Amino acid sequence: MRRIDYDTEQYHDYVRGRALSEQQMAAWIGAFEGLLPGRRPLAGLDVGSGTGRYTPALAQAFGPVTGVEPSVRMREIAQQQSRHPDVRYLAGSAEDLPVPSGSADYALMFLSWHHVEDKPRAVEELARVLNPGGRLLLRENFSDHIPPSGWWLEYFPRGYEVDAAMFQPLHEVIATFTTAGWRVAGFGRVIEPSSGTRGEMLERLRLGVHSTLAHFTPDQLETGFRRLEQAVAADPDAPAPADPATLLTLERGS
Ligand SMILES: C[S@@+](CC[C@H](N)C(=O)[O-])C[C@H]1O[C@@H](n2cnc3c(N)ncnc32)[C@H](O)[C@@H]1O
Fold first, then answer.
1. β-strand 87-91 against 130-139: which pairing, if any?
2. Nearest CA to ligand 1 atom 27
3. Ligand 1 binding pocket, CB closer than 6 Å
4. For the chain, what is the domain count?
5. Ligand 1, pocket-test mutation among 115, 140, 213, most atoms within 8 A of CB
6. Which of 81-95, 141-155, 217-231 has the lowest mean pLDDT?
7. Which CA distances in Å does 233 have to 150, 155, 158, 207, 210?
8. For 119-168, what is each residue's pLDDT tens digit?
9. What pLDDT digit, counting tens, does each position of 200-213 carry?
């Protein structure tokens, strides 16, 4: 599949297109809270932090966070967005984390794992920077857990198939970690509350900041948006369905 380059696409509309409501953020922070130790502060890493959607909220809830992001443009926007005193953003990637060994209590990777090219190296790097027993919160979609992304996919020809092709099956991701000495600390779904009305969601989708859209052919895009518009027009103010999102928690061996 074509690699998404966040320095040339998506970065300009990402904040608008992927904005989270307070309820959505609260659902995520609540889920992370249940998976992390109770002591504060916790030193966190937001790996593939993008425009910093989660970074300040993580700092607010748990303690200082370093956002690591390879795209210059995404990082610049993150820096402009957040003035949180406990947040800093650094250039880097999951394969090359610019922080000392054993310096983090947890890491979040929110929809960034599928962009990582050298996954074994990323696993090694994550093990290096986490404390013994440190946790990786891997918010990721999996090709064998349908629907991987959103309710709107059903309107696009081969929508689920195109979407699923971006992701690995769950067992494959787990094996990459467990063969390197990690253990699975949890797997489940976090119900992300509705993102607003169906009409609002359609407007956000038109901004093109969901990577699946970048993998459709022009014909699939045209047909999909036409069908989706028709479906939404029937009741644009109906709430968009909540999203049962998969979250895998991995613990670094001691
Ligand atoms: C879908 S965005 C998610 C951004 C952010 N986590 C969020 O939820 O808003 C994926 C991000 O992963 C970043 N990324 C790409 N390759 C990466 C890598 N090898 N390591 C870490 N992040 C990477 C991209 O630059 C992009 O900002």
1. unpaired
2. 50
3. 6, 18, 47-50, 53, 69-71, 74, 93-95, 110-112, 115-116
4. 1
5. 115
6. 141-155
7. 18, 13, 22, 18, 21
8. 999 999 999 999 999 999 999 999 999 776 789 999 999 999 999 999 99
9. 999 999 999 998 99
Shortest-distance atom of ligand 1 to CA 110: 6
Cα distances (Å, whole numbers) of residue 73 to 45, 50, 69, 82, 111 = 19, 9, 10, 15, 18
Question: Which CATH number goes with the domain that contains 119?
Answer: 3.40.50.150
Does residue 22 lie within any of the structural domains? yes
How do residues 99-112 score in pLDDT, each as one tens digit?
999 999 999 999 99
Query: Measured in whole angstroms, how far is the alpha carbon of residue 216 from the centre of its chain?
Result: 20
Question: Nearest C-alpha to atom 13 of ligand 1 is from which residue?
Answer: 48
Percentage of the chain with pLDDT > 90? 92
Question: For the packed helices 55-62 and 22-33, what is the interaxial angle rounded to 10 degrees?
Answer: 50
CA-proximal residue: ligand 1, atom 1 (nearest): 111
pLDDT at 146: 76
| pLDDT tens-place string over residues 232-251 | 999 999 999 999 999 999 99
Q: Is residue 152 part of a domain?
A: no
Q: Which residues of 43-63 are buried (b: 16+ CB within 10 A; e: fewer)?
A: bbbbbbbbbbbbbbbbbebbb
Query: What is the span of the domain harbouring residue 97?
Result: 14-144+167-191+244-251
Q: Indicate whether 61 belongs to any domain.
A: yes
80 within domain boundaries: yes
